[in-house]
Give the backbone structure.
Amino acid sequence: MSIYSTFEYFDTLLSHPDIFEIARKDPRYFTRDSKLGLPGLLKFIISRQGYTVANEINHYYSSFELKKSVSKQAIFQAQEKLDYKVFPYINSKLCKHYYQNNDYETFKGYTVVAIDGSVGEVPYTEENARVFGANDPSRNNLFRVSPRISGFLDVCNGIYIDVLIKSYKDSEIPMAYEQMNNIHDILENQKVIYIGDRNYPSTDMFIYYNMKGDKFCYRGKPNFYKKQLKDIERDGWIEVDLDDKWIDRFKIEEVKDYAREHRKFRLRVIKVMKSELRQLKDNEKDEEIIIFTNLDENEWSTKEILLLYGNRWSVETGYDILKNRIEMERVTSEKAELILQELHSQVIVHNLAAMIKKESDKIITHTKKYKYQTNINNLIQLLRANLAKLLNMKDEFKTLIRKIIEKASKNKEPI
């Protein structure tokens, strides 16, 4: 399918009856035709530029039909009736449609999904502190409200398959568990490898992956399985025995049951120097990195796993951290519900841009010295500038998408 079909699906999705059911905080909301309407409200929020609401209204309606403009009060009242969960739902449906109907990049036939965690900052109010948690005061004696963000990123295609935003008091691993079912639904019947840094590895998570038939490749901490690791020089398997005390600390009941039944699990360990994965920065010390995986040595050589895990570094160095990618600094709201609406809507914008990027990359001109790719940050800005018009065009939206693709292909960067 083409990128045009993806946008046609997206436009249809915003008016689907399921969207109305999920979007309503009360069954009575969004039941009558109005000047704004639920699809119009969703398009308005997704198209936001980070300006004041008055300026957003002017920008949005000037893009297609100014006389249809609504007041600030109408926007605020409609947003109060809107459940932010509709945006993660829209994103999951968009991603699932994309993966089922388009060719996309994989690594040896696997979709490579990196777990990325971050802590952001939003305006301090009592409500926000209650919902997102407040950190210790800064040097200016000001409390900071810091949502914790967990994202599952398709490394090869730059798509955030799932993003969860909670209080900074919530830990990363339970949040990742909460997202797993959605990932399995979106990437149904597809081979997946999960990669992540040393904040995530845990024995119960490794067992969970084995239970679900998933593959993983994680950086581990040197104190993990210390007794077993001493026998590994470069690449080998260890076997870990599980006692009741250890199993009782696991977070998921089905994992506890599986562990009590099996009592041990096998884990492949690879020891590598950081300089083998990427070029060190100036004055950066080299260090040993331990990689834990369940990838079979008959399918995956040591070299291939190092290349695979090197994708983790592309997440950390090739892109901004997650809170910048959804542009948390653009948040203008002070209410928790509206903040969640804004942040989750920007994940959708990012993913639409990533899907367009696949098309613009195809027409980029390379040189003998360098291969290039579309600059995703420039593309996101270009898409935002045209999104209000794009989402409200009935006839010539294909022409506009084609112009965006052509323009984006000229804003390129070396790979």
User: Anything to note?
Assistant: The CA atoms of residues 333 and 339 lie 6 Å apart.
